[in-house]
Structure formats: structure tokens, C-alpha cells
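Protocol step 4 of 6: structure prediction from sequence.
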Amino acid sequence: MARRAASFGRTLSTDVMDELACHCADLYADARGAGDSDAAAHDVVVRAIERSTFDELINRRRATAAMPSRLDERTTDRVSRWWDDAVFDLRYALRGMRRSVSFTAAVVSILAVGIGATTAAFTVIDAVLLRALPYPQSGALVVLKKVTSNAGETRALSTADWRDYGAQNTSSLTLAAYASWPMNLTGGGEPLRLRSVIVSGSFFDVVGEKPLVGRVTSATDDAPSAPGVVVLSYGFWNHRFGRHPSAVGSQVLLNGRAATIVGVMPQEFALPANDVDLWMPMGLAPEVLADRASEWVSVVGRLRPGVSVAAAQANLSVTAASLAQQFPRTNRDERVAVRPLLDTVVGEVRRPLWLGVAAVLFVLFAGCANAANLLLARATMRRDEIALRAALGAEPARLARQLLVESTVLAGTGGAVGIAAAWMFLRAFVALGAGRVPRVEAAHLNAMAIAVSIIASLVTAMLFGGGAAWLLARAKVSQSSRADVQRAITSHRLGGFLLAGQIAFALMLAAGALLVARAYAATSRIDPGFDVSDTLTLQLTLPGTRYPTGASHARFVEQALEQIAAVPGVKSAGVVSDLPFVGNQLNFVVRTDGEAANPPRETRLTVRPADPGYFRTLGIPLVSGRFFEPTDRSGAALVAIVNRTAAERLWGGTATNRRVQVTGEAPREVVGVVGDIKHAGLHATEGPVVYVPYAQKTFDFVNWIGIVVRGADVPASLMKSAIARVDPNQPVHAVMAMDEYVARERAPYQFSALVVGSLAGAAFVLAITGIYGLTTFIVGRRFRELGVRLALGAAPSAVVLLVLRQILAMLVLGAIAGVAGTVMTTRVLRAAMPASPAATDPFVIAAAVALLGVTSLVAALAPALRAARIDPKIALQAE
């Protein structure tokens, strides 16, 4: 054809050669579609070229051409020529996409899934981990954590420690304290239990947030004798007052005391949580501020300009050592840790989120590898077209540019569809993470997310489309270039290595999904230490004006339990200060008698008031001694029950008839030992606990109550009615089945299992389709060779094994790399999921390898069997 073009006596422009090549490709495709062999279709194209005159060639138009071809154009305007070439390349690429609808749909779908998932994952990571908190200079906000060798890291400090840390480190940071303190709202309708927070006078100054309406509380409001004032959250202001400005200045009745609303915070203010209803001053008495034995306040701070977290940590460590020397009774072996506020807000989801991003990137890589294999397979089918264009004078760089434009258009289309897919993925991620992942509700597609999608598309086009372009552009420009292209593609192993990497990614995700699924299943086998079935819980807070003492608390509890016991279906009921899984706990300095020969010793333990019905209702096992009895009342001998951990650590296992003394109380006799429970969560270890009879509770400030009720299908409305019969102004909060708390504990595992499992499934499907596509690619590439083998007498089974052998080699290579990656990734998953099996669990790895290996061979078998049915006559005609 090159000789025919030269015989015209003039030089064809690049555009004309491109137009002619497209026309020849159309003729070739039509002939093949009509049933002609490869050689016959090629002859049709040659005859059409040889019978055409020069004028007919230069006036040839593509059926869908939007611009006329040009002949022998000599222009010095490089920009104009580049633009014209780019427009033609784009038109050609779009026409090719229309001609190969199934191929286009496959590539676009694969890329859309990978790019969409990546964009959605980036959006979630940006919203949860990277975006600054919505407070002024939020990077300077920190929280203090108490660290001990026994309890680890906790956020509860004593008021005296908070004040000392603040007073002795004014050059490094400013500190403020806060604590959750539920309030009852009465008057003006149904009583409500509010999520309220008491704050020190400098709280809002430290955070630096200004009110939306009105003012915030100040140090003047924090005096014990100051009038009561409150600051509302935006959500409560909207729900209760319809966002009316007149709410500021009005009064509300909280725990029986009047308080004036002085301000409303902005909607984005969520410290310490986004479900807080109001903030009010602590108003602590001097003796409470000087208390070093009780730990119940959380501390937030702001670093001074130029002070780093490390510098503040060093200064606070000096203060902690000094306090340990001054107050060994309460501060021995205690230190304080400085943590950025963002890390505290994000909590334990940071590592699972990054693991999810890694899984999404695996899916993207698998999708890109799959798309690359499809492009290589398509390149095999287009070898005649490329040979025609090369024979007509197209240079390798020109061919590479055209192919790169085609891959860019495909990737760009995949990225555009990926934006829609990202919206769907994001909605799924937010729905799965709601209530489980902090700040996930703020994740929205924005310009940055769209930019990520565009960049991912361009990178995909360059890396994988460019590979196919480079491969085909290696062809020698000669009449025999078709064979050269065939040999270039035959010798190329890019598709196989891409498939091996795809298999490795799929194996790692499959093993990770199995590990997470086993971790989620393991949570259902964790024994919380009590029976959660048919158990209803409710929470109350008794107002101090109506119930000022522990004795009044006990009378209310006694009457409430009598009313609850009369409800149909109730088998038993009990009360405790802090319900399991709610997260609260009281820590006091407790003196124990120790060994007989040793003097009494002091340690900080969890103290939990409970009644006899609490242990029996939850089925907490008795290890030794007895439970509380109704006779363990105020005025009777003081008694206590300890859990197994306390008995072992304090007395070596034998605790009955020992004595403990809670700060501020007389000594108590230990009458029983009960089993440990998972009070702080299914994956938390219970420390030493001392239970005291609720009727003998002496610390009057503990006015919050948790009630547990055993009974099948007991309506929550009847529980509220029972409490209302005792006190119609007493609101009931969080009426929930204990099963719901357990479900919340399992929710992070469920979230991880769903996300990783779905991504693993996507990678798995991509790997299988990639194997199918590559097998088809191998069969198409070796079509003539396999036909010759069959013609020479090769058995069909031998042909099948010949095809599968090459796929099996890639499977083995991918499995080796995947197993190595699986060991590393599952170690990280193991650290993030304490309930998961060992990182190198052979069952997980073997199951993933077997599953992927069997399905991969099944996927490769269909094209391999088709290869065994090749008609040798057709193959030899093509040759």
C-alpha cells in the first residue's frame, strides 16, 4: 500500500493517511463481519486501495467525519496543526468507542468502580481525618489523659489535679474542665432528660468558639453563688424553641432549679459530642475543687503560640512527677499525656479508615490492571488496522499518540461516570458509618473530590493506556509490519504481570475480608459476663432539689422497682449507678486490709452502687460468698462485693471476710465475690471493682440511675408509666434492650466487615474477569498457532492444558506475592481488631488461596475449551 501511495507522485498528509487507515479498517471489519477470513478481508482492503485514483483517495470522507481531509498541507502554525490533530484523534477515539460498545462499556464500568470508590474513600478520609475541627486554630487544641500502669489511658482527672496542671503550666497552655452531667428539663410540657455538660469558666475561651446568638458562660458565672445560666446547642434550640431569638433571655427549669438561657452555639460546635443539648457552669464549691481522690472531669487545653505538643508534654510530665511526690496517696504512679483534640474525636476509627482506603486502592489497582488487559486484548484485535496505518506511512510516535488519546478518552469517560459512582459509594459509606464513625456525616462531594477523580483518570490513562500505546508503536513500518506487531505482542508479558498483581491484590483483600468476617463472628461469641437476652434498660437522673441525699435516692429506687415489678411480663428488676456498655464509672481511693502481716494499703478502684436485683437480673455469677440482701440497708453493717479481678489483685483470690474502706466512709466487710463483666465494652478488660449496696450509698452527688428489667417483650411505654406513678416529673431516658448495646459494640466490626467484604468482592470479580479476559487474549493471540497444532494432530486436551499452563503460572506468581502481602496486611488488621484470629492464621490464607485458585481456573477454562474447538482449516487460511 505504501508503494501504491508513492505511485501517486505526491505526499499524503498525516490526516489523509489517518482518514484512509480508518476507511481501510472499516472495510476490513465489514468483510470480517460478512464471514470472510482474515486473509480474504485483507485482500478486499488491498483491492480497494489499488483501484482508487489519487483524487478519489484525497476526497475520501469518513461517514461520521465532521471536517474535510486535507492534502499536502504545508503550515508553519504548529499550534494550529497540533490542535487539528488533537481534534481528529478525539473524533477517531469517539468513533472507536461507538464501534466497540461492549468493550467501551466494560472498560468504563471497571474504571468507574475503581475511581468512584477511590474518590468516595478520599472524601471520607478528608472529612474524618484530614479536615480541621470547626474551631478557631483547632490545631492548637489538646486534651489531657491520665495514664496509669493498671488502667492504662483514661480521660478522667480529679478537679485538684486539673487546677494544679493548669496553674503550673501557664506558659505552655491554658486548661478548662468539663463533665457530662445529665439534667432533667421540667415545666412547659413532658419532662425531658437532656444531654448536658457542665463546664469551667474558661471553657469557651479555651475552645475559642463564639456564640451564634447571645453570649457564652464566663468565670463570673462559674461561682457557686452565681445565678444559673445555660448555653443551648443549635440542635436543641431548633427542636425546643424553633430557632426563635426570644429564647435567649428566657428561663428553663433544670433539675428543679431555674436557669437563664444566655446564648446559642453554632451548629458545627460539637464538644464533647454532637448530641449535647446544653452547657452550663460547674459552680463547684471550694472543697470539691480541692478534692484529689475523685476523678470525674475531662480536661481540654489550648497550646500557647509557638508551643508544640512535645514541649507541653515535657512540662506536664514534670508537674506529674511533682504531684506524685506531694500526694503519694492519690498520685503515685500516675502521669498525664497530651493528645491533639482531633485524635481524641476520631478515636479508634483512624486505623480502620486507612485500612479501608488501602482496600479501595487495591480495588482501583485491580480495576486498572483489568482495563489494561482489556486494552492489550483489543490491541491484538486491531493489529491489522495498526499495520495498515504503519504501511501508509504513519510514524510510531503518531500511532502512540492516537492510542494514548483513545485510552485518555476511555479513562476520562470512566472518571466522569466514576463521579456518579462516587456519590453512590459515598452515600453507602455514610450510611454504614453513621453512629459508628465520627464526623462521617460531614462527608460530601466537593471540588477537591472531583479533582481527585480527574487526576485518578489521567494517571490511569497514562500508566495503562500508555503501556498499550508504547507496545503497538514498537511495530516496524514496513509491508510485513503486521507480523512484527504480532511478534511484539507475543513477546510482551505486561498483561501477565498485570494479572499476577491483580491476583495478589484480590488475594490480600479476600484474606482481609475473611479475617474481618471472623473477627465480627468472634464478637458474637464473646461472653459479656452476664445474660443480655430479654433485658430492658432505662436511665434516670434524680434532681438534687427533690432528691438531695442518698437516702432519698434509695427511697425512689425502692418505689420505682415496686412499680416495675407489677408490670405484666416483668420477671425481675435491679438498679445500678452505671449500666454496662454506657461507659461511665466512679473511681475512688480505696483502703484495703491487705495481707494479715502488712499494714493497710490504698489504691484507686472503681466503686459501683447496686442493689440485690442487679446481679440476679443480669445473671452475674457468684464466685464465693453471697449477693446483697434486702437487709443490707442504711443503718445496717456496711458490706461490699468485689469482682474476681479485685479479689485476685488485692487478696490473692480469697476476698470474703476482708475489709475495704472507700474514701469518706467507714470500713466495709466483703461478703461476696462475683465474676467480671464487660462493663466498658466487649473488647475491654474489667479492672478491680467494688460493689456497694445502693441503699448504703453515701456519696450523694451520684444522682444518676440505671435500671435493668428482665422480661420478654416488655413495652417501654409501661416502664415509663411505672416511673411516672412514682414521680410524674421524672423523665426516663434511653429505654433500650441490652441486645442493642451489644449490637453497638459489634457495629465497628460489622462496618469493617461490610466495607472490606464488599471491596474484596469487587476486587475478586475484577480478578476473575481479568483472568477470563487474559485467557481470551492469549487464545486470540495464539489463534493460528493453536490451529496449526490441532492440524498437526495435537489432542484438544493438550491445547487446553497449553492455554491453562500460562494462566497457572500467573496464578502461582500472584499467589506468592499475595500470600506475602496477606501476612503483612492481616497483621495490621489484627492490631485494629482485637477479636480477630492470629495474623498468620493458615485457615484464612489457605481459604483465600483455594477460593481464588479454583474460581480463577474455572474462569480460564471456558476460553481454553474454545481454543480446543478451533477449526484448523480457518486457522490455516488466516495464516
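Step 5 (inspection) to follow. Confidence is low (pLDDT under 50) at residues 1-15, 57-76, 475-492, 595-599.
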